[in-house]
Amino acid sequence: MNAPKPASPHILQLEEVTRHRAGRPAVSNLSLQLEAGQVLGLLGVNGAGKSTTLAMIAGALTPDSGVIRIQGNDFLEHPELARSAIGWLPEGAPLWPELTVREHLLAHGRLRGLKGANLNQACDAIIQKLELNDLQRRLAGVLSQGQRQRLGLACALLHRPALLVLDEPANALDPVQVVALRNLLRELAANGTAVILSTHQLTEVTAVCDRVAILHEGRLRHDAPLHADQHEVLEKTFFDIAMAGRAQAA
Ligand SMILES: Nc1ncnc2c1ncn2[C@@H]1O[C@H](COP(=O)(O)OP(=O)(O)OP(=O)(O)O)[C@@H](O)[C@H]1O
């Protein structure tokens, strides 16, 4: 086995990544890079390949071909190193219904190698940040959708990952929590965390992302910097790509 790679300027690198699902290409020849402090919005119509891409980045799905590196470490050669740098919120925030909010965080922390006072401090800090104080002793199985989402985010953030991978993070959040999430992502990015998030809300992308990538039928159709005043440009680019795909399919 090769030695771990020295720190790479890119937190995340995808090179020509392809993955089939149910015998069809879900992601094709995808190449992407992400640097520390960047927030990349991943857009695309239903079935475009966003969740498949994020699951591969998180190490939950293996590409059929191509390479994914996290802080320079290839998932196949250094899975532990690659995984330890990632916090992942999967679509729908899967949770154990029989565990309380705090038990979830303790379990995630232990899986990430935290213990003792460090584990308790990390849990307290993230409970504070995600406003979960009043819910600490509640079972995950009785949480509302938005509360589940916040707990999923807390689990992803607990070990302070260098790369945050968020699949539709604003889903089910109320407007107050949506703004809190925006502020949290901006704060994390300002402190050097790289974020890749998928969403169907173009306003969320213009509010927090400094780059946008658009997938269509598993292929990267757009990857460019984005400024907060470019909402209309983003809308036009997104609809041009989505509608061109429909015209071809008709
Ligand atoms: N578990 C699965 N088994 C088989 N095929 C799947 C599975 N999950 C997704 N796919 C297929 O892979 C392709 C990409 O799906 P994916 O979920 O990555 O898209 P998405 O952009 O996240 O969509 P959405 O916006 O609807 O969440 C689709 O054709 C989908 O039908």
TrEMBL record:
Record PROSITE patterns: ABC_TRANSPORTER_1, ABC_TRANSPORTER_2
Gene Ontology molecular function terms on file: ATP binding; ATP hydrolysis activity
UniProt cross-references to Pfam families, sorted A to Z: ABC_tran
UniProt-listed InterPro entries: AAA+_ATPase, ABC_transporter-like_ATP-bd, ABC_transporter-like_CS, P-loop_NTPase, RLI1
Gene3D superfamilies in UniProt: P-loop containing nucleotide triphosphate hydrolases
Keywords from the named record: ATP-binding, Nucleotide-binding, Transport
Domain (ABC transporter): residue spans on this chain: 12-242
Source organism, top-level taxon: Bacteria
Family per similarity comment: Belongs to the ABC transporter superfamily.
Protein name: ABC transporter ATP-binding protein
